[in-house]
Write a structure and sequence with these properties.
The complex is a heterodimer of chains A (about 120) and B (about 100).
Chain A: E1 3-7, E2 10-12, E3 18-25, E4 34-39, E5 45-51, E6 58-60, E7 68-73, E8 78-83, E9 92-99, E10 106-109, E11 113-117
Parallel strand pairs in A: 2-11
Antiparallel strand pairs in A: 1-3, 3-8, 4-5, 4-9, 5-6, 7-8, 9-10, 9-11
Chain B: E1 3-6, E2 9-12, E3 18-24, E4 32-37, E5 44-48, E6 52-53, E7 61-66, E8 69-74, E9 84-89, E10 95-96, E11 100-104
Parallel strand pairs in B: 2-11
Antiparallel strand pairs in B: 1-3, 3-8, 4-5, 4-9, 5-6, 7-8, 9-10, 9-11
Classes of the chains: A mainly beta (about 120), B mainly beta (about 100).
Chain lengths: ~120, ~100
Amino acid sequence: QVQLVESGGGVVQPGRSLGLSCAASGFTFSNYDIHWVRQAPGEGLEWVAVISADGKTIFYADSVRGRFTISRDNPKNTLYLQMSSLRVEDTAIYFCVRVTVPGGPFDYWGQGTLVTVSS
Amino acid sequence: IVMTQSPATLSVSPGERATLSCRASQSVRSNLAWYQQKPGQAPRLLIYGASTRATGIPARFSGSGSGTEFTLTISSLQSEDFAVYYCHQYSNWWTFGQGTKVEIK
């Protein structure tokens, strides 16, 4: 079955960096666009970034552009999110999410990994 | 595109019908999905294309609408349906509504 497992979350000070990973299994990873979506504690969902199946097309939310970098390693079935210049408002659960087709709805979500930015 | 859900909280008795609304600030055509999220869990896709149930979703969940006005209806609430529901447009970038919490009356 489709599985997405995030890792790498933790507590980090403002201004520092942190890297997240998402290990995929149960489907042909290289065929699917993958997104990062985050959810601040007790809040709603916020789209963060997307990378196309071949890794050549990338988009970011305004709130993270220039600070976050999304990438993927298709032979390793792994998605990454490198976060730098972290802010308190980046505190959230980060989910990696598969889409059904490019530009389509989000059909499978990982369980998420919590990033806490605090001094 | 700003997605606005109403009401913020809906109190419903088990077995009753629940109707949730979602409005888009501009047309998203039928590029609208609904997700259910329970505490401590990831969201789960319920409806996509405004009205198509995702795999394994019970028939008591139905979606309707197009353009800027959308509705999720749960025909007879079961205990496992009490959760937060989000609408999501994927027509022009990706944005979510703020959620509607369906709670036990």
